Amino acid sequence: MSSSKRAATPFKKSHTLDFALEVVSTDSRGDVSVQCLFCLYEGRQVVEVGVAGRKRKQRNDIQYFTKSFAPFKYRSHHLGQHAASWTEYQMLSNPTDAARKQLIKKKNEKKNAIKLFCKEEEVSVYTTTIKDVVRFDLAMDFVSIGLSFRQTTEAMQKAKTRTKTTKLSGLNDSIAGQYTRVLVAVALQQIVVILDHESVWAMSLAGDGSTHRGQSFFDLRVRACYRGELMNLHLAAIPMFDRHSAVHIFNLIVKFMDALYNKWRAKLIGVSTEVRTP
Ligand SMILES: [Zn+2]
To answer: Which residue among 12, 120, 148, 207 sits deepest, i.e. has the most Cβ atoms within 10 Å of its Cβ?
Structure first.
């Protein structure tokens, strides 16, 4: 055995969690290549260079590691590029791996949630391209009758098998979720178009509470007269975890409306809640 081979530290599976790594490939000799998950989900930090306030541009590339897999390499990369996240991550490392898995998963979710939305240069417009239109339409049909993302995936599989339609293959619950986000985004955009229309000079908000599978939601509707027709549109069901206070709900609405339609304050003439008597 050559001295270089003896010195090569093999990759340890436990390091994927210890150092937030993911194996991306294994070559014919069994040598692996791993990537940094912080790079993947957050990008690298902007590094101050200190020359007359000049900043080095944020690097978008992902750090890959190949042998030898010495832990100091990960540590020095994480400290240099992801100092804040790395500190936070290490604090989670005790006592279980579950918490760290959760952290990575969370980052995954956020990244996946907006994967289909591409921001156009310079203007704040997002575009989405759906390649499998039939699959998208059918998936949204399933979701619209109340199927969960997982059930939608199962139903799609059955439809594919029964009709021998290969176009319907490849759906999973994460894609079903992304499709639904696209639909919700388009619906919200349509609502904004209505609210911003010249015929709409005022609007009112109506709040209501509901419960779905033990989870409380604050339902928000908007009412407006659009081209002579009264519209009553469902805006959002905001989950209420532990705080139901008026201030909390108020803040949620303001945050939501600011993000949705920044001119809402000028058109608002009333806010109401429905009170049911048993
Ligand atoms: Zn990294």
So the answer is: 207
Q: Which tokens hold the place of 190?
A: 């349509």
Ligand 1 centroid–CA 8 distance in Å is: 21
Contact partners, residue 187, CB within 8 Å, separation at least 6? none
55/105 same-domain check: yes
Half-sphere exposure of 147 (CA within 13 A, CB side): 18
d(CA 37, ligand 1 centre) in Å? 6
CA atoms within 13 Å, Cβ hemisphere of 77: 20
Residue finishing a domain among 171, 189, 207: 189
**Would the pTM count as exceeding 0.85?**
no
Residue 242 structural domain: 196-273
Considering its fold, how many domains does the chain have in total? 3
**What whole-number distance in Å separates Cα of residue 221 and Cα of residue 122?**
32
93-110 pLDDT, tens digit per residue, is 555 666 666 666 666 666
Q: Which residues surround ligand 1, an ion (CB under 5 A)?
A: 36, 38-39, 63, 81
Q: Does residue 221 sit in the same domain as residue 264?
A: yes
Structure confidence by residue, pLDDT tens digits, 60-75 = 578 889 888 889 999 9
Instruction: State which H helix or E strand residue 226 sits in.
Output: strand 215-226
Does residue 120 form part of some domain? no
